[in-house]
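User: Teach me something about this protein's shape.
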Amino acid sequence: MKFTVPSKTLYSYVSAVSKVINSKNALTILNNFLFRFEGNTLTITASDMEHTLTARVLVTDPEGSGLFCIDARRMVELLGAIPEQPIQFDIDDSNLAVKITYPGGEYNLIAINGIEYPQPKKEDEGGEPMEFTAPGEQVIKGIDNTLFAVSGDELRPQMMGILWDITPEAITFVATDTRKLVRYRNSMSAPGVEGKFILPVKPATIIRNVFGKDAEVKIKVEAKSATFESDDYTFNCRFIKGNFPDYNRVIPQNNPSHMTIDRSTFVNAVRRVGIFVSAGNGLVKFKLGDDKVVLKSQDNTVCSMAFEELPCQYEGNAMVIGLSAPYLVEICTTISTTDIIMKLSDPGRPVVIVPDENEADSDLLMLLMPMNVTDF
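Assistant: First, the predicted structure itself:
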């Protein structure tokens, strides 16, 4: 087998595909890429037996065809260090000796027979799959806006992923860890179908890093898994089993008090005041009223205290509420608008945080549970 391929083109594909590989694998062969060479196309596959990612790259001067496996870490590091130029792969069919050459350089290694690479078991998942196409931008925005709110609590596995609530008109992405919740609805494209699934963190991260915003992503949803496909990549992953909590029930429908404030000024103040919170709880107290908000934190164990006052537009009753500084910073840095709006009802009920103006075809809502405060 022989073929030639640009070094940096191949590097970009193997780097992307390598994101599927675990740092420790039960099967040693999963530390390798599976290369399938046929015609003028080289496909590169990696798997952890739960998720499988395949990339396709065009090559020149092809001779022969076949399957072989090469150590993924070594291949990524080598290609990353080779300057941009065509490189030639020459694989001996009899002993799978691989020679990688370019002017002034030659590297030799022994591949593993590709037949030994395990193939994920194909189960009969039953029922008709749900299929639709979505712009890469829609998919990536949905993941970007929700991934930070995914729960890490293994006792609640249904919340350890992003809910895709698909309707004929739009896709709603939801994540929660019971202390914060994000609901992001995007109608950039209309799926034309209806269904739900929970996408785990690892495949969500892979999709965000691998698929381009300009790509058209074909999505095929079956009973236990989904396949995401673009011109360059095919990614198959399993869902999280179980039912996601009814997120609409926890979102307040009537929060009469509203605070509008410059997002950057507010989040920087929260960061500063958050330095002085008590270890372990992150509590910052907010006193709202008279078109200003006062932030206060203290740590009695080391006799420290912080206090800041910011102008804002506030409509509603004067109020003192406690919020977690780290969670509030996460929420405010995810929103990209100049101003944010905080909607409140009383100190014991969830705070709704939204951008002052949503982007076209989108609706973003963040929810943060308050913390108990006794006084200011």
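Now, about its shape. The mean pLDDT is 94. The longest helix spans residues 263-274. If you'd like, I can walk through any region in more detail.
User: That's plenty for now, thanks!
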